[in-house]
């Protein structure tokens, strides 16, 4: 019987949750203040914690941080009012699984609890894969096996070499630069380094520097004091202070504003921060891992990144190759994502058809693992049977090779030459043909020309439909409607 610890100073709420969860087969332990719960957490040994954000003696964030020191992987769900949602999101960055808002609906909280417990038991939550996982057979007769590893790494020599580099650098306190394209799994590499270090029981905080505005970057990283600027109604603890004792991961570091880079240099050199509007230094003991999709040395030479800051970070570097350069891992990752989607959707899809596997192995995956994951999730949602077929894949994935071969300019399309329809098969999939129209039909020539323009726009926009629509001077909805008119789209 799984054990749930409920921490809430509202005794009526505790009683309600206790009765509801007990009827559904859980053992429930109640505590009415944070300190008492933390004192007994080791003896209670819960499988999941359900904690109100506002407690009489401490807030939920303090409970979460203290819990992480004892149980780093404990599923932790926050109960919060609508006014505290922003703080709840900050707690997600600290490792909380999810939050539910008041008023609490029993069915909603039950679904959240079950998903959290399933994720904890499966231990399959990351993008990058484990060397312990081998490639699956070409055709599977049963549901994809679920890994017991928290991360799964591919089997390619490049990824095995990265594993060795992680084992080498993780026990040190070196700063690390991780280079890789967007969506290739840089954050998962950083997490792996953290988990194999002596700081594994301390916080891991990940920050996307590209999402920080110039105005708020300093406050997000270093925190601020109440009243330090307009809108600073309360004191804010910055991400670096939250990561104290652990690891902070700064993704897309080259996007940081230059003045913030200056302040960050002091942190790296002296391991001290000062909150915005503050007048005292705060000592820090943390490891800094950064990531970039461009070489920081080149950014430094171009004046975009401080050279002295680059040298401070460049104690060790890891180059994560894009997915297209480790094609032997594509199906390993795809099956991993399929297994996760099966659990999420309650489906039992066994595998991908041979045609889909061929498409996956030939497509360059511009968005890397992030794109692959989204394609698999979409395909699983559209699949009714036990095997993912071509009809569940996006058009631009299936016909990528043909689209890439097209060279007709958008501004002056040539009259297309019609060709017979060729249905997608394993033999002809790599070179799918254009749709067939009656050669003597003026309308057919017009449609062919329109088709050619759409193909070229998709190619020039790297298959981004929003950008393609702008090139064609139409809206995105019109582009989708046009695409659906063609026979290939209807046959997918």
Give the count of helical stretches: 21
Going by CATH, what is the homologous superfamily of the largest domain? P-loop containing nucleotide triphosphate hydrolases
What's the architecture of the largest domain, going by CATH? Answer: 3-Layer(aba) Sandwich
**Overall strand count:** 16
Low-confidence parts, pLDDT < 50 over ≥5 residues?
123-150, 407-444, 487-492
Instruction: Evaluate the radius of gyration.
Output: 26 Å
Question: In terms of quaternary structure, what is this?
Answer: single chain
Mean pLDDT across all residues, rounded? 78
Q: Indicate the CATH topology of the largest domain.
A: Rossmann fold
- Percent strand equals 5-15%
Largest sheet: 5 strands, parallel
Strand order of the largest sheet: 2-1-3-4-5
Measured distance between first and last alpha carbons? 46 Å
How many distinct domains? Answer: 3
Helical fraction equals 40-55%
Secondary-structure content class: alpha/beta
Account of the 3D structure:
The protein has three domains: 3-121, Rossmann fold (3-Layer(aba) Sandwich), CATH 3.40.50.2300; 157-323, 3-Layer(aba) Sandwich (Rossmann fold), CATH 3.40.50; 397-491, no CATH class. It is built from 21 helices and 16 strands. The protein has helices at residues 11-23, 34-44, 60-70, 85-93, 106-122, 157-169, 186-195, 217-222, 239-242, 258-270, 296-301, 307-313, 330-345, 354-362, 368-382, 395-398, 400-405, 442-460, 465-471, 476-485, 487-491; strands at residues 3-7, 27-31, 48-52, 76-80, 98-101, 176-179, 204-208, 223-224, 236-237, 247-251, 272-273, 282-283, 287-292, 316-319, 351-352, 387-388. The protein has a five-stranded parallel sheet, with helices on both faces. It is globular and about 70 Å long. The chain starts with a strand and ends with a helix. Mean pLDDT is 78; it is low at 123-150, 407-444 and 487-492.
């Amino acid at each position: 019987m799984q054990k749930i610890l409920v921490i809430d100073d509202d005794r009526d709420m505790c009683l309600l949750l206790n009765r509801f969860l007990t009827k559904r087969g859980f053992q429930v332990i109640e505590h009415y203040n944070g300190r008492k719960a933390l004192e007994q957490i080791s003896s209670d040994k819960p499988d999941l914690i359900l904690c109100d954000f506002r407690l009489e003696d401490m807030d939920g964030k303090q409970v979460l941080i203290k819990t992480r020191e004892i149980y780093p992987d404990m599923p932790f769900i926050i109960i919060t009012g609508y006014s505290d949602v922003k703080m709840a999101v900050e707690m997600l960055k600290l490792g909380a699984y999810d939050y539910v808002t008041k008023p609490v609906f029993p069915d909603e909280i039950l679904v959240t609890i079950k998903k959290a417990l399933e994720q904890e038991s499966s231990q399959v939550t990351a993008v990058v894969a484990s060397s312990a996982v081998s490639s699956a057979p070409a055709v599977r007769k049963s549901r994809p096996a679920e890994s017991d590893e928290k991360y799964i790494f591919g089997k390619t020599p490049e990824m095995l070499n990265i594993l060795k580099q992680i084992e080498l650098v993780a026990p040190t306190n070196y700063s690390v630069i991780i280079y890789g394209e967007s969506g290739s799994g840089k954050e998962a590499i950083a997490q792996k380094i953290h988990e194999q270090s002596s700081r594994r029981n301390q916080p891991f905080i990940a920050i996307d520097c590209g999402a920080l505005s110039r105005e708020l970057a300093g406050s997000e990283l270093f925190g601020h004091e109440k009243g330090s600027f307009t809108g600073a109604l309360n004191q804010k603890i910055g991400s670096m202070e939250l990561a104290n004792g652990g690891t902070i991961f700064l993704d897309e570091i080259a996007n940081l504003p230059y003045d913030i880079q200056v302040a960050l240099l002091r942190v790296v050199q002296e391991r001290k921060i000062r909150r915005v509007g503050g007048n005292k230094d705060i000592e820090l003991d943390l490891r800094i891992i950064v990531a970039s999709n461009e070489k920081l040395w080149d950014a430094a030479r171009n004046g975009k990144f401080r050279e002295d800051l680059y040298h401070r970070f460049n104690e060790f570097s890891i180059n994560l190759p894009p997915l297209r350069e480790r094609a032997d891992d594509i199906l390993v990752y795809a099956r991993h994502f399929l297994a996760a989607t099966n659990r999420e959707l309650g489906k039992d899809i066994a595998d991908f058809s041979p045609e889909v596997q061929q498409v996956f192995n030939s497509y360059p995956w511009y968005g890397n693992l992030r794109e692959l994951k989204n394609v698999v999730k979409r395909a699983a949602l559209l699949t009714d049977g036990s095997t993912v077929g071509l009809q569940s894949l996006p058009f631009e994935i299936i016909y990528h090779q043909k689209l890439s071969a097209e060279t007709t300019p958008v501004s002056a399309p040539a009259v297309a030459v019609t060709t017979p329809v060729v249905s997608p098969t394993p033999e002809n999939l790599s070179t799918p043909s254009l749709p067939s129209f009656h050669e003597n039909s003026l309308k057919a020539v017009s449609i062919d020309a329109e088709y050619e323009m759409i193909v070229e726009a998709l190619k020039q926009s790297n298959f981004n439909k929003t950008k393609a629509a702008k090139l064609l001077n139409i809206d995105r909805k019109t582009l989708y409607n046009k695409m659906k008119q063609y026979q290939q789209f209807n046959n997918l």
